Amino acid sequence: MSEALRTPARLAVLAALAGGSSLGATEGPPPRLVNAQVETRPFADSLPDVLRNEGRGPAWIGYGVASLRRGHQCCFDSWEGKGHPRGGGCCRLEKGRSGAASCASSTVALEAGAGPHPRTLVMVRVEDGRASRLGAYSEDCGLDAGGRRVLWLTGVPDRESLGLLESLVAKGSSDLAEEALMAVAAHASPEADRVLERQTARGLPAKVREQAAFWMGEARGRTGYETLRRLIASEDDSSFREHVVFALSQSEVPEATDTLVETARRDKDTEVRGQALFWLAQKAGRRAKATITDAIENDPDTEVKKKAVFALSEMDDGVPLLIQVARTNRNPEVREQAFFWLGQSGDPKALDFLTEVLRR
Predict the structure, then answer these.
(1) CA distances (Å), 291 to each of 38, 41, 247, 300, 304, in order?
(2) How does DSSP classify residue 268?
(3) pTM (two decimals)
(4) From residue 311, how far is each of 225, 252, 257, 333 by CA, in Å?
(5) Which residues pair with 61 in a beta bridge?
(6) What's the domain count of the chain?
């Protein structure tokens, strides 16, 4: 997988997605926060102005928004380890700093009340009046602020949050842009779909386009899928289409598999067809078998055929098909690939076949 597709904890931080139509900020249970000098303030200004007015810092500005995400979203940088998803584990906001208390105790209640929707907590680190880092967390994630000041804003509208995050994508570092896109994807507001779609426009940095496409597949349901379907059909840049293929493989929309099948059969670029075959094997299992075997037999490009052989090796029931390819395929390079992946499989049926061939 290319570096551009790397997103910090991109698959570990998301659980099952649920559609939502909630608009605006929600008030809900307080997050668990330790080692923080907390000030709570109702939102009454623009978020960029709040960032500029917070002085030299460093400090954290946080708020909650209605979220698509259900389940636990925290981070890997936990001083109590990965084994405490809901108990006492803390996510350290300040790298290299940690406190002495568990997030299960000595917590600071930032907001009270109960809302009908899950929330994502957006935490923005401010230094010299500018955002330097941010994170998005589920509200059951314990946060260790490392002794820093935390300004907690209540009642932040979705439009303010998304406006700030979109500006950080445009003006921030590549890491900050990546973090901002992840936070955008968590918003329940439909406007988040439009923000992500804008970030796939031609002329923007490649990593921004790729990350925006990824989050449309990973987090944005049918709207995200429809955008990706249009991109795979209209985009001229074959490298970007490869990333769109990966994004489609992350979508829970059933038709995403059909689009991958069509791409594997019809795309004009051999690399894109190969990527579609690979992700079909990961995503669809038996549903992808006919497309993969058809590519081995009929794709005009040997490299695509070889990638299709590898795709078979990734399937749970791929060994019998690999044996068939090794026995009967007319292309020697394709047969060689089949023998190689049979040798790597560790399957007793593959060992029996290889032994039979060696004894001839």
Answers:
(1) 57, 57, 19, 14, 12
(2) S
(3) 0.73
(4) 23, 20, 15, 15
(5) 124, 151
(6) 1
Q: Are 150 and 38 in contact (CB under 8 A)?
A: yes
- Digitized pLDDT (tens) for each residue of the chain, 360 residues in all: 343 333 433 332 232 222 333 333 444 434 578 888 888 999 988 999 998 887 677 999 999 999 886 555 676 433 333 333 444 456 888 875 544 445 654 445 454 334 556 888 999 999 988 999 999 988 878 888 888 999 999 999 999 999 999 999 998 788 999 999 999 999 999 999 999 999 999 999 999 999 999 999 999 999 999 999 999 999 999 999 999 999 999 999 999 999 998 999 889 999 999 999 888 887 766 667 888 888 898 888 999 999 999 988 888 778 888 999 998 898 999 999 999 998 888 888 888 888 888 777
3-state secondary structure of 117: coil
Token pair of 139, please?
A: 């509200």
Domain-located, residue 162: yes
Question: Do the domain assignments include residue 289?
Answer: no
Instruction: Give me the residue label for tokens 């994004």.
Output: 247
- Listed residue (110, 108, 92) closest to 153, CA to CA: 110
d(CA 138, CA 64): 9
Beta-strand relationship, 130-138 and 119-127:
antiparallel
Q: CB–CB of 15/72 below 8 Å?
A: yes
Domain that includes residue 16, residue range: 3-253
Whether 187 is in a domain gets the answer yes
Query: Does residue 216 form part of some domain?
Result: yes
Residues in Cβ contact with 68 at an 8 Å cutoff, skipping those fewer than 6 apart: 17, 18, 19, 20, 185, 186, 187, 188, 219, 220, 221
In angstroms and rounded to an integer, the radius of gyration of the C-alpha atoms of the chain is 24
- Rounded Cα distance between 313 and 283, Å, is 14
Tokens of 298: 């009929």
Q: Which residues of 41-58 are buried (b: 16+ CB within 10 A; e: fewer)?
A: eebeeebbebbeebeebb
